[in-house]
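Hey Z.,

So I finally got round to the FO1 thing we talked about over coffee. Here's the setup:
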Amino acid sequence: MAAQSRSLPAVVLSGGVGGARFAWGMARVLPAEALTIIVNVADDLELFGLYISPDVDTVCYTLADLEDPERGWGRADETWHAMETVARLGGPTWFRLGDRDLGLHLERTRRMAQGEPLSRITQDFCRRLGVAPKVLPVTDDPVRTIVDTVEHGPLPFQEYFVRYRTEPQVRGFRFVGIEQARPAAGVLEALQHAAIVLIAPSNPWVSVDPILAVPGVRAALQGKTVVAVSPIIGGRTVKGPAAKMFRELGLEPSALSVARHYADLLSGFVIDTEDASLAPRIQAEVGVPVLVTETLMQPKPRREQVARSVWEFAVALYEVVSPASSAHGPLGEG
Ligand code: FO1
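And the result:
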């Protein structure tokens, strides 16, 4: 059975470092042709005239084993000479762009200026970097997360996240441009073809919601086996401000709150062993089966173990609603 379940087509919705690490794990569980990663682009920004897409780059670098292991974003073995010059000349240095990373922004900006869509450039860069699974920005249209904060009012995402180090209190989020955004070429096709959609342990508010909010994406999840992994363990996030955001929005920072956040989308939910006591409440309140397993993805071999546990749980749920799947040919095709 394991052989067949390996080749059910899957989509991972990813943003941030946790999402990229989960995608890396899934790339070791599934054959490349069965895996598509749909990535958030609402963190994107323009700086020095360059188009920067942090969540897309973090997924590509991580899948290519090029990412800096401590930071999780940007390149390993990075140098910062260009930023040193910018600093010496009095320019903005709050958003750190390494020399190797800059090369990617230069080439992407050049190709976008010629009218090539981000999704086409991204797939070409991933191919050239040796990334086998398909990586798709959720949209090629401009969408920008604005974080409404108490101290500074509305802030562009990266100013909230990097310049102010996520310290401002959040009051809400807006995804400017979302109403006009269309799914990038291949996004709806990947979702329609997928047997299983996995929501990575990313920030529900600013990584996953901007993906789900692109018109057409939520609808494409209807009838699919959708499993989310909680990014909150024991009331805290491993990395990033998700737990703080829940608290500032007046919600309990817990795996239960994350399950409630995704509620109507879910077929199943994955929580860490530290939150095992929450499983009965989530099952009762959200009405979906809960997998309790180790979800920490450090050190690196844990990424594949987490991905494999989540995958086997999702396949079991899929086969309950689609018993025919086990009868399908080797590709598990519809
Ligand atoms: N995160 C930081 O905390 N400080 C930075 O200076 C920074 C620069 C940066 C440059 C390129 C890139 O792809 C990501 C970068 N990030 C930085 C991470 C970025 O803020 C992402 O949005 C987060 O990973 C959340 O998705």
